[in-house]
């Protein structure tokens, strides 16, 4: 083809593309993703730069983090960070981000949110001279203007000079705070102004603050705080617990401080292994909650549980995969007097997925519910004791493995298996070498239409 002919073809193609563009549909606008790549206070790759770029781009923006090396990653802030672009999300979930205000000159807030539809997720804000986050449309702090749909989730506010979170507005759709911790602040949360939509602070940890939740000129009923732990077993405004202003609804509270799993690592800060280790060393019963969904691939040993413990993944989908574990090992090796495990999938355990009474010693109580147990090398659940046992298995699905449930022991025990399913076990769905009558299995599905055996 001659050069002249080639240029003619190119001209025709350009013309066709221009025509399609002119007559085609309007492109869909997706959220801009802005990635933070370092811990600098400013400059390319910094959090401040990402938020400045969000101000300059049309449509919603999501700021994420990709910083090399093991966390935590601390960002030392030298001046207040402004969030003033509508539809901005700062999502540091699983990134180990800590934003520290120790270098700020007082008085100063660490974050100033002056936009609507803002979300902040999954990082720590600490050591601000004034407020960790000030949600206020008026930079002068007069509480004039409205706040619409600000959402805060899985955050930690620690050691801030005035409040972890200040909500200062005269109207709007409100502020929602979920699964966030407020510790060692002068006030955990301060609400000033009459926001019609209110402020909701739910399912968090509010402990060790000068005051937990403070109404400063806001009317009663402005704040609803449900399902929080207040520093003791008896709720807000009781001895040893953080307080809340009159007019804050704190009627539903957690009596036990939950330990949170915040990543899917096999070990280290925020992992399930670290959470169980902490629970084993703390006095009294403990609760472990999950803030993440996904697969935890085990490469070390199992999880020894030696103290009373409840593990509940709630709405999170969590799979424990033992295929990388050395053999022999159980995934959960329980010698605690009381153990509860709910809503989890356990696959590829070298030996047993859950070993109750791993040393065949003293008696215990245990409740396992809404579990899926697949491809265990020996048993899905192994129960062994020389003492009195009360075990309840409800809505557990056993797929594969040599045995579904294996019960052994020398004294009176009660094992109840209800509403569960057994499929494709190599030897037996339920094996009982303990006293006859120890196991009561009702309402289960045994892999066929005709029942067990």
Structural account:
This protein is mostly beta strands and 453 residues long. 9% of the residues lie in helices and 38% in strands. It has 3 helices and 37 strands. The chain has helices at 3-23, 47-56, 272-281, and strands at residues 32-36, 61-65, 73-76, 81-83, 88-91, 97-100, 111-113, 118-121, 124-126, 133-135, 150-153, 156-158, 163-168, 175-178, 181-183, 187-192, 199-202, 205-207, 211-215, 223-226, 258-261, 286-290, 294-297, 303-305, 309-312, 318-321, 332-334, 338-347, 354-356, 364-374, 379-385, 389-399, 403-409, 413-418, 421-423, 428-432, 439-442. The strands form 5 sheets. Strands 21, 22, 23, 25, 26, 28, 30, 32, 34, 35 and 37 form an 11-stranded parallel sheet that branches. Helix 3 (272-281) links the parallel strand 21 (258-261) and strand 22 (286-290). The protein is elongated and about 75 Å long.
């Amino acid at each position: 083809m001659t050069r002249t002919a080639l240029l003619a073809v190119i001209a025709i193609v350009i013309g066709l593309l221009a025509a399609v563009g002119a007559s085609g549909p309007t492109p869909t606008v997706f959220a801009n993703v802005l990635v933070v790549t370092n811990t600098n206070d400013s400059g390319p790759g910094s959090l401040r730069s990402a938020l400045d770029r969000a101000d300059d781009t049309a449509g919603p923006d999501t700021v994420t983090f990709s910083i090399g090396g093991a966390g935590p990653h601390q960002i030392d802030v030298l001046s207040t960070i402004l969030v003033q672009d509508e539809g901005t999300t700062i999502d540091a979930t699983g990134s180990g981000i800590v934003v520290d205000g120790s270098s700020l000159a007082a008085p100063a807030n660490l974050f100033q949110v002056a936009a609507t539809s803002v979300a902040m997720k999954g990082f720590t804000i600490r050591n601000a001279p004034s407020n960790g986050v000030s949600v206020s449309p008026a930079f002068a702090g007069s509480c004039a203007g409205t706040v619409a749909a600000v959402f805060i989730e899985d955050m930690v506010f620690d050691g801030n000079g005035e409040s972890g979170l200040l909500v200062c507005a005269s109207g709007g759709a409100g502020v929602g705070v979920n699964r966030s911790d407020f510790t060692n602040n002068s006030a955990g949360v301060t609400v000033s102004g009459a926001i019609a939509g209110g402020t909701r602070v739910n399912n968090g940890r509010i402990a060790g603050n000068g005051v937990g939740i403070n109404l400063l000129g806001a009317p009663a009923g402005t704040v609803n705080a449900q399902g929080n732990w207040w520093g003791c077993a008896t709720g807000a405004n009781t001895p040893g617990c953080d307080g809340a202003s009159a007019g804050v609804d704190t009627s539903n509270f957690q009596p036990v401080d939950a330990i949170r799993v915040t990543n899917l690592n096999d070990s280290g800060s925020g992992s399930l292994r670290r959470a169980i280790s902490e629970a084993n060393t703390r006095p009294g019963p403990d609760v472990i909650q999950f803030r993440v969904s996904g697969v935890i691939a085990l490469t070390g040993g199992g999880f020894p549980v030696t103290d009373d413990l409840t593990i509940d993944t709630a709405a999170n989908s969590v799979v424990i995969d033992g295929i990388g574990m050395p053999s022999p090992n159980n995934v959960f090796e329980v010698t605690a007097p009381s153990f509860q495990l709910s809503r989890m999938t356990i696959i590829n355990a070298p030996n047993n997925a859950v070993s109750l009474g791993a040393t065949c010693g003293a008696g215990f109580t245990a409740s396992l519910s809404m579990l899926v147990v697949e491809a265990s090398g020996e048993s899905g659940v192994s129960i062994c004791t020389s003492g009195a046992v009360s075990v309840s298995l409800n809505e557990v699905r056993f797929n594969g493995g040599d045995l579904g449930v294996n019960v052994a022991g020398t004294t009176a025990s009660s094992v109840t298996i209800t509403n569960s399913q057994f499929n494709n076990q190599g030897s037996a769905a339920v094996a009982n070498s303990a006293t006859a009558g120890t196991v009561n299995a009702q309402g289960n599905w045994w892999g066929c239409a005709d029942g067990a055996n």
